[in-house]
Write a structure and sequence with these properties.
alpha/beta; six-stranded parallel sheet; 10 helices; 38% helix; binds 2'-monophosphoadenosine-5'-diphosphate; amino-acid biosynthesis
Length: 287
C-alpha cells in the first residue's frame, strides 16, 4: 500500500511540457513563502486533456497551470466557474479544484502588467501598440485597459483578426475609457510614436520580428516581447534599432503570471524579483 502524499499537489499541463520552467518557479516561491507543496509536469495527449485532468484530481491534485495547446480546453472545463479575467481573455491558464469543481482564471495579463510596472513603464494615460491578435493579445487587453492605458491600437499580419478582436472588446463594454482601435501591420505608425509597443505574435518562434514600419517609438518608449530567450529577441533588436529607450523580453511576465497563480492557490503573493534573477541566470548558462 502506498501512503498518500502529505504535500498539496499542483502541476503544469501541456503538450509538449518538458521545457516548462513552472516547476522551478513554484519550487522557488514555495521556499520563499514557506508553503510546502509538490509541483510537477503533466504531459497530456493532444486529445486527452479532460482525461488527464480527471486522473490528476482523482490522485488528489488541487491546482493546474495550463499551457499550449490546452488553454481553450481549460476554459471549457471550467465554463461554470470562470473569473471575469478568464472570460475576457477567452482562455484559462490557472485551474483550481474547489468544492468539487474546477474554477478557471487567467493570470497572463496580470503577469504582463506587473512586469511592465516592475520595469518602471508607466501605463496610466499612455498609447500602446499591441502587435498580434491571437490568444496572447486577447489575454492582455483587460489588464492593460485596467492599468489606465488611454489608447490600445491592435495590429496584426491578418488585419481582419485585429479588427474582429477590437470589435469584440468594444462590445464587451469593459473599460470604455480606453480607446481600442485596430489595423494591419502597415497601419502601426502614429504621429509622435507609441509609449509602449508589445509583441504578442508568434513570430519569435521563427526567430523573426513582425514586419512593422519604422518610427514607432515616442521619446522614452518601451518595447516588450512576450517571448523570451537567452539572448535579446528579434523583436527587441528591431525595437532598439527603431529608437526604443527600453527593451525587455517576457521572462518577467512568465514569473508574474506564476506569482498570481500562486496567490490564487495559497493566498500569499511571492516576490518575483529573486526568482526572475535565478531564472535569468539559468537561461544565460544554457539550462
Ligand atoms: P497565441 O495564442 O499565442 O497568440 P495564435 O492564436 O496562433 O497564438 O496567434 C499567433 C499570432 O502571431 C497571430 O497574431 C499571428 O498573425 P496571423 O493572425 O496573421 O496569423 C501572429 N504571427 C505568427 N507569425 C507571425 C509572423 N512571422 N509575423 C507576424 N505575425 C505573426
Amino acid at each position: 500500500m502506498t501512503e498518500a502524499s502529505p504535500l498539496a499537489r499542483y502541476a503544469v499541463i501541456g503538450n509538449p511540457i518538458a521545457h516548462s520552467r513552472s516547476p522551478q518557479i513554484h519550487a522557488l516561491f514555495s521556499q520563499q513563502t514557506g508553503k510546502p507543496l509538490s509541483y510537477e509536469r503533466l504531459l497530456a495527449p493532444i486529445d486527452g486533456f479532460a482525461d488527464a485532468v480527471a486522473a490528476f484530481v482523482a490522485e488528489g491534485g488541487q491546482g493546474l497551470n495550463v499551457t499550449v495547446p490546452f488553454k481553450l480546453d481549460a476554459y471549457a472545463l471550467a465554463a461554470g466557474h470562470l473569473s471575469t479575467r478568464a472570460r475576457l481573455a477567452g482562455a484559462v491558464n490557472t485551474l483550481t479544484w474547489r468544492d468539487g469543481a474546477w474554477h478557471g482564471c487567467n493570470t497572463d495579463g496580470v503577469g504582463l502588467v506587473s512586469d511592465l510596472l516592475r520595469l518602471g513603464v508607466h501605463l496610466s494615460d499612455v498609447a500602446v501598440l499591441l502587435v498580434g491578435a491571437g490568444g496572447a493579445a486577447r489575454g492582455v487587453l483587460q489588464p492593460l485597459a485596467q492599468a489606465g492605458c488611454a489608447h490600445i491600437h491592435i495590429v496584426n499580419r491578418t488585419a481582419a483578426k485585429a479588427l474582429e478582436l477590437a470589435d469584440a472588446w468594444r462590445a464587451s463594454g469593459v473599460s470604455p475609457q480606453t480607446q481600442v482601435t485596430a489595423g494591419g501591420l502597415s497601419d502601426a505608425a502614429r504621429p509622435g510614436g507609441w509609449n509602449v509597443v508589445i509583441n504578442a505574435t508568434a513570430s519569435g518562434l521563427q526567430d523573426a520580428a513582425p514586419d512593422l514600419p519604422a518610427g514607432l517609438y515616442a521619446d522614452g518608449a518601451a518595447a516588450y516581447d512576450m517571448m523570451y530567450g537567452a539572448r535579446p529577441t528579434a523583436f527587441m533588436k528591431q525595437a532598439e534599432a527603431d529608437g526604443a529607450a527600453l527593451t525587455a523580453d517576457g521572462l518577467g511576465m512568465l514569473v508574474g503570471q506564476a506569482a498570481e497563480s500562486f496567490f490564487i492557490w495559497h493566498g500569499v503573493r511571492p516576490d518575483p524579483a529573486p526568482v526572475l534573477a535565478a531564472l535569468r541566470e539559468a537561461l544565460a548558462a544554457g539550462h
